[in-house]
Amino acid sequence: MMQDDKVIVCEKLTKRFGDFIATNEITFDVHRGEIFGFLGANGAGKTTAMRMLCGLSSPSSGKATIAGYDVYTQTEQIKKNIGYMSQKFSLYENLTVRENIEFFGGIYGLSDERIQSKTEELLQRLGLKTEANKLVGSLPLGWKQKLSFSVAVLHEPKIVFLDEPTGGVDPVTRRQFWDMIYQAADSGITVFVTTHYMDEAEYCNRISIMVDGRMEVLDTPTNLKSSFRARSMDEVFYQLARGAKRGD
């Protein structure tokens, strides 16, 4: 990959809460169109790091740019250039499918004409034309998930942040969701995803694993499994949790 296609650049990014260091000098780059997995146990610092990258929390020290914008001084520009989806999906359950799409299109600053064309395109692609006027709250979980992801990339952001996006759905739906992630990455959108499903980690181009606020390892799934003499990412994660180092 070319050096100038970096859309996330972090250098010793740190967040302290009093004496507690939640995220400790993390340094990494993410490239345009890359699917970047950000893994770690609860309390490892993933959510704190993601909040800083999304412009929602100011770092204590270090440097970072997101889509070329500084995390200290240009948070509003960052928010306009990213999409975000959490495990809670961020949809309004008391609005219809169509109303949700139109609402978020407006939030993202799309023109009325673009919102209408995007809405029809999205309903067609997801097979939701007959459900367009149904309340989102009435949809099955898997459909909510697909709709939420589609809304998060409606404005064609440079980066989409996915925080545990596939929790609670069946394996078939998870696989379909990852097909959507691949399509987004193929279109040039960078995907930054946290997950606790280790099989999903293997779908990523590269993976970083956080342990106690530090970025312990960063590499491709194949290289990590080779370094830890592991057959799966589950084994890699287990060895790291026990304090093992690469090549031990």
TrEMBL record:
Keyword Transferase: no
Keywords, ordered alphabetically: ATP-binding, Nucleotide-binding
Matching InterPro entries: AAA+_ATPase (IPR003593), ABC_transporter-like_ATP-bd (IPR003439), P-loop_NTPase (IPR027417)
Coiled coil segments of this chain: none
SUPFAM superfamilies for this protein: P-loop containing nucleoside triphosphate hydrolases
Pfam families with a match to the protein in the record: ABC_tran
Keyword field contains Metal-binding: no
Domain ABC transporter: 8-237
Top-level taxon of the source organism: Bacteria
Protein name as catalogued: ABC transporter domain-containing protein
Native source species: Dyadobacter endophyticus
